[in-house]
Amino acid sequence: MDNEIQRKLLRHGEEETEGDLKKRVWIESKKIWRVALPSMISRVCAFGTLVITQSFIGHISNVDLAGYALVQTLSVRFINGILLGMSSATETLCGQAFGAGQHHMMAIYLQRSWIIDLITLTILLPVFIFGTQLYRLLGEDEAIAVSGGYISLWFIPFIYNFVFTLTIQMFLQAQLKNIVIAWLSIFRLAIHVPLSWLLVFKLSFGVPGAMVALLVSSWFLVAAEFIYIFGGWCPYSWKGFTVAAFNDLYPVVKLSLSSGVMVCLELWYNAVLVLLAGYMPNAEVAISAFSICLNINAWEFMISMGFLGAACVRIANELGRGNAKAAKFSIKVLLGTSIAIGTFFFVLFLVFRKKLAYFFTDDERVADTVEDLSLLLSLSVLVNSIYPVLSGMAIGAGMQGIVAIVNLVCFYVIGIPMGALLGYLTNLQVKGIWIGMIGGIVTQTLVLLYLAWRIDWDDQVKKAGERLNRFYVRSSDNTEQVSD
């Protein structure tokens, strides 16, 4: 009888624990999706404007398609990687400040990121000004280099929007207000498609028409974001412009540089592989097909980036609050959700295969090459569902420097050499390059998983507190001096 009672009590305890776990997962999932879904929508729409522009240019000529692919995959990805990486310091600081209740500091962090990013971007403008010479130096085909150089000039006014769109999204995301970015991004895409059709096909403006449509839709988003922030919808976090933003820049630059290196090493990885594809026989087809696959991969990767953003916010918020257990639990839920979605897209891309290519090109040779790469594309999508969450964890905790070293070794010591060997010394060619890319990403994922398992979250809480206190005290003093 006593044994029966004990069994009933044990069974009741297990049911209660299971119910409690389900409730915790449900609550955490709601917090994650509140950040991840708007982030996914905004990133998919933002990248979608670039992909749609490529699609319109692809129907103008194959040379311009390859030229645009070079600019987007090499130059734009190069600049975007630096700015996205350096802006992730804002993501760390704003997320931890919001968790700690230091809302007024968020605007100061945002303005500091604008100063740092504007200076950085202006220094890097020669990448676009001397595009043709750069692509010639890299050994690209003359016609593709000339086309890419022309298109790169059109990208100069476009890239400045990154300074504001990237940082403002992180600023709003940290305070769980990024739903407005999602809606604005949808409107941006809704403007971009008909405007591109009008300028490219109806008015026959060709490449200039496609690029003007890209500029108009991109700066529409920036203008709308300014109206939202300055119009009083962020009363606690935006207190107006302040000269305090110019103070304490060095430690922010230091964190921004480590963030920039970490993200750049990830984004440039694909760019180097496209460059390797450019040296293959029939480079025009190789670059176009590889770029199409990378764009499809990157478009789906925007969904994973939503989980990266959610990981940043959830980890940063919980560390700012001093809750180490909640940060650790959030990572588990994030990984489970992201892997499930990655598996869905893995199957989806396997099913559609060749049909995906015709969205970008009418060339049968390019479409056949894309079909041949479809299995590797699907595998990349599956792997993409894991490591962005782990990278987001690192950004939220302010551990960008460690991950930068991991990325350097896994991508540039393992992935690229492996891809070059398989691409040039075997009959695999472009497929071999992609296998090398996957090898580097898988290695990085395994290392980050081990890092996540070994992290002392209580120590990370302590470090977050020290970081916030250091910036808070100095900035408060400076603000008081300005007021006087």
Automatic annotation (TrEMBL):
Cellular component GO terms held in the UniProt record: membrane
Transmembrane helix keyword on record: yes
Molecular function terms, GO-annotated: antiporter activity; transmembrane transporter activity; xenobiotic transmembrane transporter activity
Keywords assigned by UniProt, alphabetized: Membrane, Transmembrane, Transmembrane helix
Matches recorded under CDD domains: MATE_eukaryotic (cd13132)
Membrane topology type: Multi-pass membrane protein
Pfam families referenced in this protein's UniProt entry, alphabetically: MatE (PF01554)
Residues spanning the signal sequence: none
Protein name listed in UniProt: Protein DETOXIFICATION
Organism field: Lactuca sativa
Classification of source organism: Eukaryota, Viridiplantae, Streptophyta, Embryophyta, Tracheophyta
